[in-house]
Amino acid sequence: MNTLFANIYIGLSTVAGRLRREEKGATAVEYGIMVGLIAVVIIAAVGFLGEDIRGLFQQVVTAIPGGNA
Asked: pTM here?
């Protein structure tokens, strides 16, 4: 029974060691994908909120004395 547990332990530690060695962190491709997704989110936010933000800035400009835009 002890040899069974020892074999299971050795097998799991070997697999865990392989997984740790194969993981090397984020690559340039992964960083590129993240930057692309962030750009898509920013473009979508500007698309949805663009007119509202423009109206808000227009209200601020007109509220400032001498603000003729």
From this structure: 0.45
